[in-house]
Hints:
The protein is mainly alpha-helical. It contains 19 helices and no strands.
Amino acid sequence: MDADDAELIARSVEQVAISVYRSGRLATVQRWFDWFDDHGLIEQYPAVAIIGAWIHALVGHAVAAERWADAAELGSYQGTLPDGSASVDGWRALLRAKLCRHGVEQMRADAESAAALLPAGSLWRGPAQLLLAISLLVGGDRELADRALAQAVEVAQDTGAKVATTVALAERAMLAIDRQDWPEAEILAERARQLVAAAHLEHCTTSVLVYAVAARVAIHRGDASQAEQDLARAQQLRPQLNHALPYHAVQARLELVRAYLALADLASARVVLREVADLLHRRPRLGTLPEQADQLRAQLDNLHADLNGASPLTTAELRLLPLLPTHQSFREIGQRLHLSPHTVKSQALSVYRKLGVSSRSQAIQRARTLGLLAA
């Protein structure tokens, strides 16, 4: 850089930028990209522009990501890329899929092109498989998407793509929740959460989905403390997750809305749904996601009407609620929660009163009607 050797800098950035970013040294990578930007060179080096746009999107720099993506479409590349690609076209297709600026159908086509062009062993194959799977999921083909996500986990793990691995695991956990397979969802969500911690991805915007899904699992098992921690982490990251990655931004927020509805936190659910509306205004062609947003908005309106004037459930009562549908006695529930049977009974009676019912079975039915418990 001191010698202004742009060619050597470009080849070095292409070789190591992703690895350095994955190690958590974002400021170092950003300094390299700033050098190209300051010298007006991003259009001359499409591979550098692709990596720059990718990382700008991951950290929530939407305007910069789009500008670098536009530059990536210009210029030519001579020689073989660091992952063995004979052409830059596979990288370009992958970036287009990542940013999803032209809708989910084009995202799928771009992901398929990238997968066909990228060589075996490329560090980009994990993200390519993940983006293809997400395009299938958002497009409505859930069964095929789940198989593609399972493959994405394997490919991403094999190539060291840890961000892609965590997202694929979270997506699979979300699908497990949808089919009411909570044990599988818990396993997948915990794997994703552990990898986020091990790989130091706590500040990566894509981890919002991991925390949102983990919160839903924690709420279901009655672990209010863990749910609060996961929701707090998601809350910190959420502002950075924007239309640069529109499907991630909307998906993660819809999962957060579902978590807030399960906690009867209508104010938080309403705020997040407003953010979803803004995102969908910018990126409307996101398959089934707009319909999901409409359904949650209707559920929020109904829940607000049903709970109007009712006392909200406390954290302790929300922790107890998912255990009511089990066949465990109050004594057995108390042992699980480390509470006395008397305390459990008092909390249960308080839940009955707040829900306007007089028995455990009625409380379960009422909670399911309100969306506080899964059907």
